[in-house]
Amino acid sequence: MLKYKYIFFFLAALISLFFNFFVFLKNRKSLINKAFAAFGFSSFLWLFSFAIAYKADNPTIKLQWFNFGYYGIIFMPASFYFFTSVLIGIKRDKILKVFNWTIALIFLIIHVFKKSLILDLYYYDWWGFFPNTRHLIHVLFLIYLVLLFWISMALMAVYLFKMRHESGSTKFQRVKYVLAGTLVGSTSILDFLPSYGINFPPIGFLCMTAYPLVFSYAILKYRLMDVSIAITRTGIFIAVYSLVLGTPFAIAFGWREKLIELMGQNWWTVPLISSTALATAGPFLYLFLQKKTEDRLLRDQRRYQSTLRQASAGMSRIKDLKRLLNLIVYILSRAINLNHCLIYLYDENKREYVLEATRGKEREEQNSFIAENSPFIKYLDKAGVPIVYEEIKQKMHDFSDKKLKEVELKLRELEAEVVVPIATDKSLIAFGILGKKKSKEMYTPDDLAVFAILGNQVALAIENAQFYEESKKTQAQLFQAEKMATIGTMADGLSHQINNRLHALGFIAGDALDSIKLKSKEAEIAPEGIRDLLRDIMGALLKIQDNVRQGGEIVQGLLRYTRKGEEGFGPVDFDKLVDASVEMAQFKIKKDQLSIVKDYLKDIPKIYGNFTQLQEVFFNIIDNSYDAVQQRKAEVDDSNYKGKIKVSTRQTDGFLEINVLDNGIGVKDEDQIKLFTPFFTTKLSSKKGTGLGLYVMRKIVEENHHGRVFMSSEYMVGTLTVIKVPIVKK
Amino acid sequence: MPKLLIVDDESDVREFAKNFFQKRKIDVLTASGGKEALSILEKETPDLMLLDVRMGELSGVDTLRTLRKQGNQVKIIMVTGVEDPEVISEVESLGVTGYVHKPLALDELEQIVMKELGRKE
C-alpha cells in the first residue's frame, strides 16, 4: 500500500485546509483567528505539495512539488510564533516579529532564486523519493525553525507556569491545549531526517493531522477561537464522504486487476454498486454519527437544556414577580450547575436595572443596580442576544473600542460569563447574569440558543406577573376612588345633619346661658357654692357655643368642597388664576428649572367659573408640563435644554381659549388616545401620577364649566393643552 | 305681644328657640315642617317667621313659594345650611326679609329678630 501513501498526506492537507478556513471564516476580524489561519495555510501548502510530489511518477515533477511545498514550510515558524504571541498576548515583541518575517523572506528569496533549500532527491527502497537537503543553508533554516518553535512553546510553558493559580480561566485552558497540540505536532520534525540521508520513514506529518484534532477538542470544550460544534459536524461530514467517495475509487484503482480476473469486462459494476450503496447510506451514516458524537460530547448540556425548556413553559403561570425571579435563578443555577446567577429587573422610576434575585453571589452595594444609560446596558440592548464575556474580551482586544472596554469591565465586575437579555418587543425589561459553570466547561452556541429562547419566555412571564401586580394595584385604586366618590355624595347629607345638630346644640347652650343670665339677680344672693357652680356652667356653655361655631365652619368648608352645581361660580380673573396655580405648584417646581411665559394682555375678559376648580385645572397642566420637562431632561442629557411653558389666550365667540404649550417630553402616539382615561399614566416620577389628573381636569372643564379641553402632543417635542371656558356675559 | 313663628324639623331647635324668645315676651308658635306652617298660617298672622330651608316634608323654599302664591306677605327670615347662590337668588326674588346661616348663636338671632319685630312697633 506504500504506493498510496500520498493519500495520507492529502488527507492531512485537507484537514489542515478545512480547519484553517473554518477558523478564519468564523471571525475574519479576530486577530487570533487570522494568525492561526496564516499558520494553517503554510501547513496546508506543505502537506498538499508533498502529497502531489508522492503521487507523481516523474522525479522532475516530484522535485518541483517538493520545492513548492517549501514555500509553506518556510513560513511555518514565523506564523506559528505570531499565533503564539497573539494567543498569550505578548506585547512589545514587534521587533522580533518583524525579524522573524524578514528571515522567512530571506529564505524565500534564496529558495526561489537559487532553489538551494533542496539539492536533489534521495531514493529509499521502501519509501520512495525524498528531498535531499544536506547543505548549510538548510541547516540554518532548520535551526531557525527549531528555535522559533522552541521559543513559542517555552513562552506558552512560562505562561502556564505563571498563571497556574488561575488554571480555571479560559485563556489558561486554551494555551494548555495549544501547547499540547504543538507538542504532538512538533514530532513532524522527524520528517527532516530522511532529508539528511537518514533512513527513517517520514511519518511525522501524521502527527500534524493530530494537531487539529487536539484543537477541535479545545474548541468544543473551551470555545477556542470562537468556533463551535459545527466543526465536529463538518469533520464527520468529511470522514463520511471520503469513505463514500474514496472506497469506490480505492476499489477501482487498487483491485482493478483482481476484479477483471474475477468478473471480466463487467469489473466496473463493483465500484459502481459500492458507490451507489455508500452514497445512499452516507446521509444516514452521517446523521447517526453526528447524533452519537454530539450526544456524547454534549450529554450534560442536553440534559439541562431540556430542563430549562420545560421550566420556561411553566413560568408564565407564576404571578408573584419576586417568586418568579427567585425561581428562575434557582433553576438556572441548579440545572447548569453554575457558580452564581443573578437577575436584574428594570425599575421605571429609578431608571436603572435593579438586582432582584441572586444565587451564589452576595448582594453588594456596587452590584445592586446598573444605570439604564451605561454602555453595558446599551450594548446588551443593541445585541438582543445572549452575550459572552470571552467574545467581548476578544473583540475589545481586536478593536480596542472604548465602550467595549467598559462593557468588559462591567462583566468582569459581575463575574459574568454570559448575559442573557430578557426583552419584550419594545424594551429590555430585565437580564440574567450567568457565572462560570462549576465544571469549568465553556458555554456552547447551543447553550446560547437555549438561553435566547429562555430569555423570551422569561420576558413573557415577567410581563405577565407585572401586569397582574399592576392590575391588582389599579383595582385597589379604583376601589379607593369609588370609596371617595361615595363619601363625596354622603358628605353632602352628612354635613347637613351635623350642621343641624350643631345648630340645635348652639340653641340649647344659648338658651341655657340666657336663662342663667336672666336669673342673675337671684344668683347674687345665692350661697357662694351655687354662685361658683353657675359661673362654671356659664363658662362651659360659652365654650360649647365656641365649639359650635368652629364646627360650623368646618362643615361649611366640607360642603363647599363637595358641592356640585353653580356654587362658587362667578367672574374669575385669568391672570390671578394663573398666578394662584403657579403658587400652588410652587412646593414642587423650582423656578430656575422651568420658565413660565405669559403671553396675554392684562385686560382680557373675565372667565365665568369656579376659581378653586379652575385653579386645580391649571395646577394640573403646570404640574404635567413640569414632569414632562423633567423627563425630557433625563432622557436627552442636553445642557442647553431649558424647560419652558408658554401661556397665551385668544377670544372666540363667548369663550376664552387658553393655550398652554410646553417643550417637555411629549406623549407617544400610541398613548395619546388614552390621555383622558382614568388611571392611565406615563409618568415616571417617584410619586407616580395617579392617572386621574387629566380625567378630573376634563370633568371640571367640560361638565362643570361647559367648556372644552383639547390636547395635542408630539413625542420629544412638547405638548399643547387648549382650554375653552366661557367669558362673563356683559 | 309680637308673634313669631319658628319652622324647623328639629324639635330641640324649636323647643329652645321658643323658650328663649318667650322669655323676651314674644308669643312663639312652632311648626315641625312646611305643611304644618301653612296650616298655622291659615289661622294665625305672625309678625315674623323663621323658616328653615332644608326640611324633610316640605322644604322652606317650597313653603315660601306657596305662601307668596297665596298672597301671604308675612315677613320671613330664611335659615340655611350653606350659602347656595341658586337658593339665595330664588328666595330673594320671592321676597324675604333676610337669611341666616346655621349654626347660629341665639344672641345673634335675637338681634335680627328684635330688629324686625321692633320695626313693626
Mind explaining what this structure looks like?
The complex is a heterodimer of chains A (730) and B (121). Helices cover 62% and strands 12% of the residues of chain A. Chain A has 730 residues and is α+β, with helices and mostly antiparallel strands. In chain A, strand 7 (418-423) and strand 8 form a beta hairpin. Chain A contains 22 helices and 15 strands. The longest helix of chain A is centred in the middle third of the chain and has 74 residues, at 445-518. Chain A is elongated. The model of chain A is unreliable at 224-228 (pLDDT under 50). The termini of chain A are far apart. The mean pLDDT of chain B is 87. A 5-stranded parallel beta sheet of chain B has the order 2-1-3-4-5, sandwiched between helices. Chain B is globular. With 121 residues, chain B is of the alpha/beta class. Chains A and B meet through helix 16 and helix 18 of A and helix 1 of B.
CA gyration radius of chain A, whole angstroms: 44 Å
**Averaging pLDDT over every residue of chain A, what do you get?**
80
User: Which stretches of chain A are low in confidence, meaning pLDDT under 50 for 5 or more residues running?
Assistant: 224-228
Q: What characteristic shape of chain B results from the CA principal axes?
A: globular
Strand content of chain B: 15-25%
Compute the separation of the termini of chain B in Å. 10 Å
* CATH architecture type of chain B: 3-Layer(aba) Sandwich
Distance between the termini of chain A: 120 Å
Q: Tally the beta strands of chain B.
A: 5
User: Might you state the CATH topology name of chain B?
Assistant: Rossmann fold
CATH domain class of chain B: Alpha Beta
What is the H/E order of chain B? Answer: EHEHEHEHEH
Biggest β-sheet strands, sense, barrel of chain B: 5 strands, parallel
Which features does this protein show?
heterodimer; A: 730 residues; alpha+beta; Rhopdopsin 7-helix transmembrane proteins; Beta-Lactamase; five-stranded mixed sheet; 22 helices; 12% strand; B: 121 residues; alpha/beta; Rossmann fold; 5 helices
